[in-house]
């Protein structure tokens, strides 16, 4: 057995890597999630559906001309996806976003979407919250998607100019009022005429993504599409 493999096995025995979903030790060749958890994740496969049959796309009908709407997983309370998102958002496990983004980006590329976008932009955090948390969870997902799709991404393409309250316990109208007019495009010339994919961790009502899409379209983006790690059923 090659020496690097022996060393890796020894390190794995002393400091075992664990699955980010179930916390069981990973086997050789497993990448952040064990094979069992990866097989049991609740995938949406929305990117395989015609637009008229995509329930996520229908959420934006009559509001904004969103070109494509994707979400990798279904959010289920107390399930693996909620645990993964908690690890990403509150435990500093940015690898969750990167690996899920890379896997999803590869699936989107295989489905023919690698040429559908020019630039990936994550939904931004307010500067104060970013300083408190130390990172934006949407950045890691954007980075992973960019790797999987072979596209550029930009962390500061959108700016949040007003700090908002938590969206967790708000209804749809309250969520929209909470995020209306709080985003701006940092450099409009960088999005003008380009096909933008805006990404976030979770889509609930879609109010945050709608607000981002609105300012991008106003800045001259050719099209705006949205993608999230997970979507919550309404």
Q: How many helical elements?
A: 9
Query: Strand order across the biggest sheet?
Result: 1-6-5-2
Distance linking N and C termini: 52 Å
Order of helices and strands: HHHEHHEHHEHEEHE
Which spans have pLDDT < 50 for at least 5 consecutive residues?
3-15
Tell me how many strands there are.
6
Structural class: alpha/beta
The radius of gyration is: 18 Å
**Strand percentage, roughly?**
15-25%
Mean pLDDT: 87
Dominant shape: globular
Helix content bin = 25-40%
How would you classify the quaternary structure? single chain
**How can the largest sheet be summarized?**
4 strands, parallel
Pfam family, one: Pribosyltran
InterPro entries: ComF/GntX_DNA_util-trans, DZR_2, PRTase-like, PRTase_dom
Protein name: Amidophosphoribosyltransferase
Family: Belongs to the ComF/GntX family.
What does this 3D model show about the protein?
The chain has 234 residues and is an alpha/beta fold. Helices cover 38% and strands 17% of the residues. It has helices spanning 3-14, 35-40, 55-58, 80-90, 94-110, 127-133, 137-149, 172-179, 207-218; strands at 66-75, 119-122, 158-160, 183-185, 195-203, 223-232. Strands 1-6-5-2 form a 4-stranded parallel β-sheet, with helices on both faces. Strand 5 (195-203), helix 9 (207-218) and strand 6 form a beta-alpha-beta unit. Helix 5 packs parallel to helix 7 and helix 8 packs parallel to helix 9 (207-218). Mean pLDDT is 87; it is low at 3-15. Pfam families: DZR_2, Pribosyltran. Belongs to the ComF/GntX family. It comes from Hymenobacter glacieicola.
